[in-house]
Structures are given as structure tokens and as C-alpha cells.
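Input chain follows. Return C-alpha cells only.
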Amino acid sequence: MKKLVNIISILVLVVFAGGCKKFLDEKPLTQVPTENYFKSLKDVTAGMAGMYGSFQQEMTGDGNGFSGKYHYWGEGRSDNFDRSQYNNTTITEEALNQMTSGNSVADWTGLYRTIGRANTCIKYIPQAAAFDNAVTTNVVNNNLAQAYAMRAMCYFYIVRLWGDAPLWTEPYLDITQQASKPRNPKAEILDTIVSDLTKAYNMIQKKQTAVIWNINEGTIAAMLADVYLWKKDYPKAITWTANVFTSKGSKAVDYGSTGTTLEPAATWKNLFINPANTNEAMWSISWDYNFNGCACLPISMGLSNNPVAMDSVLHTNWKKNTADIRVKFSYDTLPGLGHWDKVIKFHNIAGNVIPTGTGAALANTYNVYLTMYRLADVYLNYAEALNRSGDPVNSLRYLNYIRVRAGLPALLATDPSISTQDKMEDVILNERRYEFFAEGKRWFDLVRTGKVKEVMDPILKIRQTKYGSAPDGFGSDLNKILFPLHRNVLEYNKKLVQNPSYN
């Protein structure tokens, strides 16, 4: 994140330090009484920085190794990624559908740490207005909106990855409080997510130019549309998408519904190397190596050996479509070892050619901006909702906005590949696969649409044969679509029960 955030995050450690029960990482705030802390605009800013910094760390990593969850959660189990010749246990288990409770990405601790910080901000930010005139009503409401939305985002990850989970909506402030909770039903958590996001949208100041490093009006509406898509409530997904269209982006103009505010094809990669200067970016995570260290993505670039490789079939086949401008901006298209494990999408390199030889930059010398939401994501989610709502004409229109921008021909309504709702959904999902490659979306798309076994079964059989396992594909146990709960989580909270099929 920005230098200011890193500096004030140090201050936040006074309030948000350490962790007691690891499954939540919410240490009672004894160093400084929390009620005595939020008494100025500076305190509010520091508290919010601690919340964002916690989420940033969970997605990007802690500056060491390949610990960021963004790619492991969103794509590690999908048909986009595979293990490389430098594989670790994390990706090996994901790529072969052999997840265990010892896998590091089965640990939700960092998400609950972020939830704890959001809960503290929600509880105490309003009191700052009584001590500092700079903490205006708009300041309070805008920060509360972001805290509610961040809490919702963390729970959205949790329910999509683990299903049922403990629901915490108050900060953990007293060591006498009960630190263990059983799991709440997934449906209850989804309802809480909707409630939080609705509060956030009502609080956020409208028609403000978006600051893409923060959750903003358009992002909140996009998140609500996304959640309703998961709930199969397509009319509400459509309604909330309309609210995205009337929100302002970073160029101080409405995102709109006509495709004109999509980033042009010629500068498409700016979405990942300079997102604040695009028409399309909505919310991105900023990682500056000067202050945060290495953004050591598991499928990075530079002179690094990555544990994750691009799936070999996708690596070979996508580049055959020479009209698709996204190929040269997304990955190292050269064949063989040392190339399959390189994604260049998030790296600012001249000519999109990986520098090699003496003096070539290491992966940890690049700033990285991970995309959470952008307008193309909203458009293709909208196409999916419209398709399932019986509006193929407009569904095709939003699909074609993305295809044409990518250099592909627009599909005609008479094309047999989109002749039914199911076929149209498959085409939309395929377009999402290419457009959002390495953006942490693919696994969630497969889960949401019920395509995990259909897509992954043949791919897993190939991988399992190649790596010496029994070629049984995904298998018949669909419980394994969920991740296991990490063994440390179970150890520290005896009220939890492991997900089926992982005992």
C-alpha cells in the first residue's frame, strides 16, 4: 500500500497487535484501551489502515515466500493453474484435489483478523466525532461503510471456501469473553453479508470520484451484485449492477452501461500496472516493494522459481488465438521449463518480454496491484444474470463488449454456441476465464455455476496420471468442493467440526 498506510500501520500495532486464539487472531486490546484510542481523525485513519493492511497481507503475502492467498484461493484448484517443477505442498494438494487440514491455505485466521479490525472500527470510529471536529459526519459514514464492506468481503471469502463458519460482529476486547464459537449456517452468513453491504451502500457518500485503493460506492454495489449472483437472485443482481453504472470511477465519470468507460484495448494492461489511471478499475490492492518487501506471487516473474505453473493445456491453446490481445499481456508464451511458471499480467516490463540474463530484475523489485473488482467483471456478471433471467439479447450485448475489446469478433445471436441458456453460460464463463486469468476468479466461477466436477474431472485425471496418483478425477465426493478447516483452527476452537470428507 502507500507509504502513509505503512507508517500508520505501525501505530495501529499498539491497538491491533498480535493474536491469542489463532483461529481468530483477536488479542484483547489491553495495550491501549480501545475506547481511549479513537479520538481523532489520525486515529480513524490509522485504524482503517490496520484493517486494509491486514487484508492486503492476506491476499498478497507478508513479503516472504509465496504466502499470499489471492491466487491459491481463487485459482489454485482450477483449470488455470497447476504445480510447477518447483512445487510446494500447497499447490500440489490443490492441483490434484488432495487437500488436507495441514495445508496453509486451509487457514482462515487472516480473514478473521481482518474481521476483528473491521469490528473494532465499526464500534469505535463514531466516538471520534466527539473529540475532533475534523471527524465530520461524512468522515464517519464513509469509514464505517468501508469497514462494513470489508467485513462482508472477508465473510464472502469464508462462505465460498469453507461454507458454515463462526459469525463475529463485535470486537473481542476482554479476555473474559468466550473466544470459541460454533459454526453458523452459510445462509445466515450470506444474509449478514447482504445486510453489511446494504448498510455500507446507504452510508457511503454518493457520486464521489473513486479512490481505487479503497472500497467505494461502485465497489460496494458490485459486491452486492456478486453476492446476489451467488444466491441465484438474478433480479437483485441486475438491480445492484444498475447502481454500479451510476457510480463514478477514478476519472470522475459514471461507469455507465454502454462500454465506453472500459479501458481501451491498446492500454488494457494499465488495469494491472497503473490501475488508478484507468476508466475501469474499481478496487485494487497496492503493494509497494520499497515498503512491503517482495510481492512474491506464487506465479510471478523475474529470476524466480515459482511453485505454481500455468496449466499446460491452457498455456498451449490460448496463444493460438492470435487475435486475442490479452495473451501477450498475461503470460510468458514461450514453451518449456522456466516459462510455464511465469505470469506477467501484474508486472510492468518493457514490451511485455521478461528480462533475462545478468542484471535482470528479481520478482521482488516490482510493485504489484492485485485487482479485486473492475468494470469488466461487473459486465460479465451482469451478462450471466441477464442470461439466467431470460434476456439473451442484453446478455449477449455485455458479453460482446468484452470480446470486442479483446480483439475478438462479436458473437451473433444466431451463433449455435449460445443457442440455449446453458450454452450461453458456458461461453460467458469461458470469456471470464481469459479476461480474468490470474485475477483470483476462476475457482469461484466454477463453484458458483456448479461446473467444478464437469470441468475439473478430465483435467485432474490427466494430472493425476502424470504425477503418479490414481486417475480418479475429481471423484464423486462433492463435499470436497469446500476447503478443509486447518488443523490449528480446530485445535484452538473445540466447538468447530471439520468439513465432511476431511476427517
